[in-house]
Amino acid sequence: MAKALLKDVTIRNTKPTDKDQRLNDGDGLYILIKPTGAKWWRFDYTFSGKRKTLSLGTYPDTSLTLARTNAEEARNKIAHGIDPSDTRKEEKAAEKLALENKRRLDAGLTVIGSFEYVACEWGQKKVNDWDDKNNRSKRMLERNIFPWLGSKAITDILPKDILDCLRRVEDRGTIETAHRTLQITGQVFRYAVATGRVDRDITPDLRGALPPAKGEHFAAITEPKQVAELIRAIDGYQGSFSSLCALKIAPLVFVRPGELRAAEWQQFDLEAKEWRYFVSKTSVQHIVPLSDQAVTILQELKPLTGHGRYVFPSERTPGGDRCMSENTLNAALKRLGYGKEVMTAHGFRAMARTILDEVLGFRPDFIEHQLAHAVRDPNGRAYNRTAHLPERHKMMQSWADYLDGLKNGAVIIPFSKSA
After folding, report:
1. What does pTM read for this prediction?
2. In the predicted model, is pLDDT for residue 378 greater than 80?
3. 3-class DSSP assignment, residue 252
4. Which of 137, 147, 265, 304 is the most buried (most CB within 10 A)?
5. CB within 8 A of 14, min separation 6: which ones?
6. Which CATH superfamily is domain 8-95 in?
7. Is residue 401 packed enough to be buried (19+ CB in 10 Å), middle (13-18) or exposed (0-12)?
8. Which residue from 203, 230, 231 is spatially nearest to 401, judged by alpha carbons?
9. Looking at domain 224-407, what is its CATH homologous superfamily?
């Protein structure tokens, strides 16, 4: 402890003059008496070869005893290589941040330094069309990460916290979405590293924690903006009317291409808005609810091909004895400028699965049923073909309306259909 030179009575009895007065207490601590009568505690010290001064408050609000205590704390910091002025600046910055975050919370905004705050800043700077309600990266974070980690300081997030979120996605049966969510989260963390928020990207620590993604063997467009361009291109197709109708209905029903081209008129009930057929790949009876848009396409096509067996007959067999060739739809897409490396007829399935889940928020089991996948309940029993049929009718109509909205350039607001 420095030698104390001052006494309270001395400070109280010292009158101001027309010049600053300095009363020393020893080892850098002194009180500065201004001509106005104000009495300021000061502490002079040397750090890294530079002379500095630290303000310790005013007398008598800061008593002699408290000023000495504060000065001693400053000396201890200096002895441990810490500049007390830097500590003071950090404390003031923290106080300012706390006040600002309180204001933001009261206004319903994300707090500065939270994962959601950093992610949104990253999105605004790095992601095209981030403000679009349908932006895929934004929707994936909003659905899979923000509800649990959005308000948490990004510096406090651990790999396990992220894994817990990814497990929830995995439990929905969408492992590919879990992998994509991890990739986007990693991009946010790398941005946080670049902007000095965190020291490192923690997402590589989760390598191997998720089951491998199944992998997509068919090229597919899954970004809403590109989907809109594709749907508009299909409307402008200049090939045969039968091929045009097949192209237009393919995204609405998103069945396997072989099932679409082999569709028979006897399988359709246009009044009930349903298409029923047997799926040989999974050996199940399947029901495809038809949207109003799909029914309209079929009604327009029926006068042309309704006299035969197949909805989409081969153009080489006018009598309709053979169905459309397996290459017809992919060839039509290629004529529109969408080669097999960009989009395939099978890709309409991935398009629907991705957007129905990640953008529109429909239940994964509804989607899997509609894809005619081998879905099982928690007890291991296979669902029957009519499971969730009313909900799937609603989903298919909402999907068709969504595609119309994209095609027409409307701003589509995502909504949840989790009931």
Report:
1. 0.59
2. no
3. helix
4. 137
5. 21, 23, 33
6. Integrase, DNA-binding domain (3.30.160.390)
7. middle
8. 231
9. Intergrase catalytic core (1.10.443.10)
Strand order in the sheet with 284-289: 268-269, 274-279, 284-289
Q: Which residue has the higher pLDDT, 175 or 13?
A: 13
What is the model's pLDDT at position 89?
A: 84
**Domain regions of the chain by residue span:** 8-95, 115-206, 224-407
- What residues have CB less than 8 Å from 322, skipping those under 6 apart? 310, 313, 314, 316
Sheet containing strand 39-47, edge to edge, reads 21-26, 29-33, 39-47, 50-59
Radius of gyration (Cα) for the chain, nearest Å? 34
pLDDT tens-place string over residues 38-89: 999 999 999 999 999 999 999 999 999 999 999 999 999 999 999 998 888 8
Cα angle 118-155-132, degrees, rounded to a multiple of 5: 20
Task: For the chain, count helices (H), then strands (E).
Answer: 16, 7
Task: Give dist(CA 238, CA 15) in Å, integer.
Answer: 98
Write down the CATH number for the domain with range 115-206: 1.10.150.130
Distance of alpha carbon 177 from alpha carbon 354, whole angstroms: 8
What torsion, rounded to 10 degrees, do the Cα atoms 235, 239, 245, 249 define?
A: -60
Tokens of 132: 């679009």
Q: What is the pLDDT of residues 96-112, one digit of tens each?
A: 767 776 877 777 778 88
